[in-house]
Description:
alpha+beta; 8-stranded mixed β-sheet; 6-stranded antiparallel β-sheet; 21 helices
Amino acid sequence: MKNQVKNYQDHSLAALKAAGHYFADSYDVIVVGAGHAGCEAALAAAKLGFKTALFTLHIDALANMPCNPNIGGTAKGQLVREIDALGGIMGLMADRSTIQFRMLNRSKGPAVLSPRAQQDRWKYQKDMRHLLEATPGLYLIQNEVTDLVWREEAGLKKIEGVVSVLGTVYPAARVILATGTFLRSKVIIGESIREEGPDGLAPAKHLSASLQALGLKLKRFKTGTPGRFHARSLDYAHMEVQPADSAPQPFSFVNEEDVTWQPLASLNCYLTYTGPESKKVIADNIDRSPLYSGLVEGVGPRYCPSFEDKVVKFPDRDRHHVFLEPCGLESKEVYASGLSSSMPEDVQRQLVQSVPGMEKAEFMRFAYAIDYDLLDAQDLDLSLELKSVKGLYGAGQILGSSGYEEAAGTGLIAGINACRSLAGQDPVILDRSQAYIGVLIDDLVTKGTNEPYRMMTSRAEYRLVLRQDNADQRLTPLGREIGLISDQRWAAFEAKQARISRERARLAETRLSPKDPKVQAFCQAKGYGLPEGGVSLADLLKRPEVTYQDLVTLDPDPPRICYPSQAKPGETFLSPVDCYDVQVQIKYEGYIKLELARIQRFHKLEKRWIPEDFDYTQLKGLRLEARQKLSKLRPRSVGQAARISGISPADASILLLAVSQRDQGQQDGLRSDEEEIQEPADE
């Protein structure tokens, strides 16, 4: 019996059966890899009623956090809230394991507010495993997938399943690849290069060859992680305290209305800095850096560089942040964010000892770089299905993303769309105006990436609308339509939206008299003039420095502020979350209207669908580069085509004209000047 598929011209189920391979049970969906992308994909598929197998190299390392043990952060917190709003699981799991919560960017306004929670990484894994094992229709299997099974039919390749390292064939109608950083991965510390995955785990050695046999182009990226240190060896007296927020907030919309929810703990983190001595350690040993000696093959992340990269690329800076963050409640292991490195052990020790408060640091794990294979995301459709292989999907770092949150977001969408394909339904495609997840997928698939992609608020053109607080308003109706939002949760969502809508209307209708002494005193204290005809509570709330809480002393009939479980039957009330949502919606109403107008113009081009069989070679006036890129990438819409690197506004205008003529049978050009493609405005 064969234990690997090699040199088969026909990789079909029929050929493997004829070759004597053992066949296991068949599945609707197989997910390869049980990191954050794989867990979301598998759970979504099983919840939607499809028989799902989740393959992992290491069942004890599923949902692992090999880098920083935190969930959320700038823009990443928005991703987690969106995952939760759609019915995904990351937010709920993070809420159970939070040991420090902080809301980032409080001084910058609601558009960029981002929740971040330090996690007990082992509890997160334990809870995720328990959930996976308890989910009906989900089968957790520790086994290495070495080959994909596929057949070619009428020039189109179609997935049929996978083969394990033991030679067993697992038939499946849909396969999702969520392999993280394990494909032919190599861990690099100085001159030491080992075939390993993150945290010293075994790599996936064989699947890359199968992907290449399918005709897929592979790329190679690099990422890395700092060392870990024993807490007893760190002198926190020489560091700045980074306390948890006094009023922690959950990621999940389920928990934000639960008066009993509390984080697991509220621990301190600490901040210190590297100095000139740290810089000198690197400068004196830069010739020993694998990054600069050529030992590292992959392209590294620009926005999370190693410390040696910082020294080389920012020579004028003498100090850099180092955050010391706990990894869990039952461990003394501490993560040193900012000290990522692939330097040899002796250099790492010198570097760490040069940092105030870390002079006697005891290493528990050394920093390392890791190289790994990945797909070219531009070979996928916006549904995350491979264009050249029907039924094969990608999610997470195999697409070029970095971070747990980006992985979970793409995993959720891949799982949803694999199931919708099986059900004969259209895929769920989030556009850039709907969600950060939409921005993430559109950037990867449309523009591609030459380095590990990290989500940032600056990537989202419509970030005032894509706030973390309104992710449920934007996406929970879609999650309900998909089938991932329960009846109970849907009822709670509808009740919340009704309360907010009712309160906004009440504030607009409630007017204050300029003769009221309380109103006069309030306005005088704030330095506001009094309109002769009075002012509504809503208009007053729009003024700078006025909060919803400020209105309580002026409101003739304020609602009770309490959690839903505390309200009496039939009582008019607002939850604390409702109050914030009302304040943001009223205070930023004018700006939001402007943003929605921009989104409306954006949708005009997004709704200009391009037929799959569109022949770009026949478009007169289209440059050769544009023809080649459009023919290869096959964009879904004129809007997506306009975002492809190398497609000029002139190219996009020619395409819009051609699509308009084809759709409408018109030969007289564009209907209006509004539809001409313009250069994007700087954000």
